[in-house]
Recover the amino acids of this structure.
């Protein structure tokens, strides 16, 4: 009798934790979406242009706007870092991870990763075509660009991919320190990619902030859907089989 009562209490406790987790995630998603559209409204009204311009100008030499501040190696490092959010590297990362999962017979998990990446690319294209913000022209670009500016595709897609992979590794890891390391590295890479876009003069700061916000929002939505239907899609069974 005591064992049954204890078991019921444990189940109720897990259910409460699960509901709280869902509630917190839902609140975060709503705040991110609200913040994104609030920022987008300010950008479209031109209210952020002055601040955006000051930041871009402050990152260049006063006597030569084509040269960024800091030593020459900083530019080289950020050119390398910005590639981590580009389509070529992200495609390789997603393909490599999906291939690894497939080799581990975690086909449905691999499909979740592929669908998250593909839907993020589609969302990025839609957002850019909606807002159609021109690229910054106040300083010379240090990297060739062709698409519109808002939101930053590099910031948005790196947030979607790296945060999704970080969350996936968190669920695999057992120790809390390892979990924090996984998500911490994902956040760090995402931040560095976005910062590099501003430093190279190809995005306004608000483009990058919006990209981070929408990317985090989209990654959270995909994570929520995957968690909600993981039993139905077989993801949980795959995880148990591998472990």
């Amino acid at each position: 009798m005591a064992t049954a009562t204890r078991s019921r209490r444990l189940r109720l406790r897990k259910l409460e934790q699960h509901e709280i987790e869902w509630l917190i995630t839902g609140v975060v998603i709503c705040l991110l979406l609200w913040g994104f559209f609030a920022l987008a409204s300010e950008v479209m009204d031109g209210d952020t242009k002055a601040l955006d311009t000051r930041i871009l100008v402050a990152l260049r030499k006063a006597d030569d706007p084509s040269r960024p501040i800091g030593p020459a190696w900083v530019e080289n490092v950020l050119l390398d870092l910005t590639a981590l959010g580009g389509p070529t590297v992200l495609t390789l990362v997603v393909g490599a991870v999906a291939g690894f999962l497939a080799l581990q017979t975690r086909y449905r998990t691999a499909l979740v990763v592929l669908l998250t990446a593909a839907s993020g690319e589609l969302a990025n294209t839609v957002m850019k075509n909606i807002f159609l913000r021109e690229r910054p022209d106040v300083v010379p670009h240090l990297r060739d660009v062709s698409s519109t500016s808002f939101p930053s595709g590099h910031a948005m897609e790196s947030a979607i991919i790296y945060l999704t992979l970080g969350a996936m590794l968190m669920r695999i890891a057992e120790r809390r320190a390892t979990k924090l390391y996984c998500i911490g590295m994902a956040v760090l890479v995402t931040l560095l990619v976005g910062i590099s876009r501003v430093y190279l003069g190809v995005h306004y700061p608000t483009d990058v902030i919006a990209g981070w916000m929408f990317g985090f929002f989209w990654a959270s939505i995909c994570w929520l859907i995957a968690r909600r239907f993981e039993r139905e899609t077989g993801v949980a069974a795959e995880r148990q089989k591998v472990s």
